[in-house]
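Researcher: Can you fold this with heme C in place?
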Amino acid sequence: MKLGQPRQRKALGGWIAIVALVSVNTLSGARPLEASEGLRIMADRTTGNCVSCHEVPAWRENNQSVNRLTLQGNFGPSLEGVGARYSKEQLRQWIVDARVINPHTLMPPYGTTVGLNLPARSQNLLTQKQIDAVVDTLITFTQPPVLGKDDKSIQAHSASGLEQLQSATVMSPIGLWIDEGKRRWEKDCTTCHTLEKVSKEVPSFPRQKGSQKLINLEDQIAVCRQRVEKTSTASGLLMSNDDGPTLELSTFLHDASRQLPINMAPPNKALDASIWKQNLAQGEKLFKTRLGHMNLSCQHCHDSKVGAAMRAQRITAGHPTGFPAYRISWQGLGSIERRIRACYSGVQAQVPAQQDMRLRQLELYLKTRAQGLQMEGPSVRQ
Ligand code: HEC
Ligand code: HEC
Ligand code: HEC
């Protein structure tokens, strides 16, 4: 695959794009919606995006050639046959708010925002009219599902996709970042540090810095860059984790710490240790709290649905071992902070600002959860 040719829409989230309000307005216009409109809404990333989680055989049959845009997920059950099993009223309930049917549901509520934590917008995901159109389509799905067959096609496809991703042509930009980072390291950092010592510290970030701040590796690099560049921001805030030179240095240091085990421990001072523990507990709580219009927690995906496909993306345990990561949809490298923010965006939640404490608490929890796992070094992701 050639660089600079992303097949996906360029969005923070990747698998679920931010709903374009414009398109919602157009759809709720005077034109009556038909069954085929329902299918379009179910496939469209900017509206229903049901196919990111469900096999919708009618959509696949509409698209003879399977490519990244027509790939469907298996996070939820196939929707084949739902028209035979449910009435229109029941189908409507599934879409509007499935919590009424199953309080532990993983099916997002499309017709309400009641009880949602940090939804990105005040509008519902779908309008009344759009829901009608989807129900009219679902009720025509009366064939019983063919088990096994659909699952296989998803697997075969994403496996070959990953092979492409790991290919040498895509790996090379990481090499460029490492080289740039090395150049900076030798120029700016070796007066105070040796690589041998610092690389051993990499797997133990984020760290509690005194009683105040939890900082990750990129934050520490930013602190040291201020030392060298003799700059400081008026607000006292550190510069972005994804600032070019910081990310280059982070890529270089992560490369140097490849294969070392993640090694998280509370600080020695009792007061700092108790604050560290509070931050860790907070991170765990955040990990387990439902959020956004999708109304899913990090745990729902990265514990309960490991191995499931959301379109072309196969869900992993979300271990933070391979950062900074080169992502096709980013057309570049991004920090772990950026990835976590992308997951907030993916569930259509309000995305925390860069440097937000919640992002560090989540990183602390993710690292602690991955204690002992080997650092992969900078890696390639979809
Ligand atoms: C984030 C993933 C996700 C998305 C997106 C999603 N669903 Fe679901 N859906 C699920 C899961 C998981 C279930 C399984 C039941 C549960 O968790 O309560 C489900 C169940 C259903 C069911 C009941 C199926 C059955 O056999 O009982 C229907 C109908 C349904 N979804 C329709 C839709 C439609 C239509 C859309 C798009 C407007 C959609 N879903 C979007 C995850 C999703
Ligand atoms: C003037 C001396 C100085 C320079 C130059 C310097 N640092 Fe640091 N660095 C420190 C000090 C002191 C610490 C201990 C933590 C603190 O006070 O911020 C540290 C800590 C670190 C750590 C945490 C691991 C450890 O060993 O504690 C990393 C990573 C790091 N620096 C990266 C860098 C990078 C990258 C550069 C080049 C941009 C750099 N440093 C330049 C003084 C320096
Ligand atoms: C709707 C499912 C879903 C939810 C909820 C979700 N993620 Fe993700 N996440 C994904 C997908 C899909 C990917 C890309 C494939 C993968 O690496 O698992 C991903 C990737 C990641 C990765 C990168 C793993 C890697 O090796 O590249 C991290 C870290 C992560 N998520 C953390 C989080 C955190 C923290 C939360 C909660 C704020 C969260 N995710 C919520 C679906 C989800």
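Model: Folded with heme C in place. The longest strand covers residues 207-209.
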